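Our working data are protein records whose layout never changes between entries. Getting from the letters to the tokens is the skill we practise here. To make this concrete, we reproduce a full record directly below:
***
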Amino acid sequence: MSKSIPSVFDAEPIPDCARAEVEELLKSGDLFRYTAPTDQPTPVARLEHEFAKRMGVKYALALNSCSSAIFLSLRALGVKPNDPVLIPAFTFAAVPSAVIHAGGKPILVEVGDNYRIDLADFEAKLTPQIAAVVISHMRGHTSDMDAIMALCNMRGVPVIEDAAHSLGTLWQGQKIGTIGKLGCFSFQSYKMVNGGEGGMLITNDEDVIAQAIIMSGAYEHNWQKHGLNINAFAEYQNTLPLFNLRMNNLTAAIIRPQLSELERRVTRGRRNHDHVAALLNKSPWLQVPTPLAGEVRAPDSIQFNLIDFSEAEARQFVAACGSKGVPVSVFGLNTDNARAFWNWKFIGNIPDLPKTRAMLVRACDLRLPARLDTAELDAIAQDILTALNKIKPAHSSFHKGSGAEHNRPVRP
């Protein structure tokens, strides 16, 4: 790959408009969100207000991570020790970790080769004992939320959306993160909005937000500085534990100006993904799954499946891409990958999930930041196809088309 192409691991740059506010904060040293008087909105409070307005919800709570948002969501929903919580088997290790931190027991659901939840397995595991469901829109791939919400609503099970990768994604015209009872977002550097770290919890439920605000670290009536007229605050004061998961003013000052950049980044991210997907899908050996009907994605990466590869061939392909400077990885072949469920030894007994395992050992992952231009995208795709041709020559008689070959797992 040409040296002129920037590293795909470089985060989105911080816009100049954030610098003045950051400089003022550094001069004042006023970084703690609760230092200012009640009638003086802090950068964190302004971020919460603007984010809630952007998402069309009543309440938003800024936190130090999306993991903290998922954890507080589970606590606010009343998950008790050993309560089973349904999660996808394809997600980041922080999700089962949040369940365990909240005292729950992760129950893993199969995920298909399109990276979406297997609805048959989901329905079978959605037993009366399930206390909550966490839906991870992993790498921005949205499962069938109509079917999921219908099943959960019918059984009275609350849904938390892990939208860490999905800020800006739509499902049937509705913003991802606003479909379930709570939505959780990430501002870690590799996301659409770069805060280094940071997260956001959103909801329309005043009892849930009151509990989450108290537990996030609003001690000694600091909840009054959120400007919310909710009676439950007084009820929960001193009755809930404090976990101190707050966002600080400096992080909020860096994040808030980037919200105005979101639409542009989403548009470019989708363009970048679809451009590279069209080039890779021309090969009989690669498959980029198509979005579900009603899904409008906001991707900052691309995932594609290796078709009819042995494990040795898959490893050779990754190495060949790497030699060209394109850091393609295969989730299930990357040692200690935190997205491979068999590496989550902290959950106890790891279930046998053949569909998810088969997908993970052939699913490739590559960041495609919104800032890349068409020439850079073409160079990346060409380097991938050149590396592929070393492993699977173009003159091979194998062709996509019948559909049967798409379902073949990587041979062990």
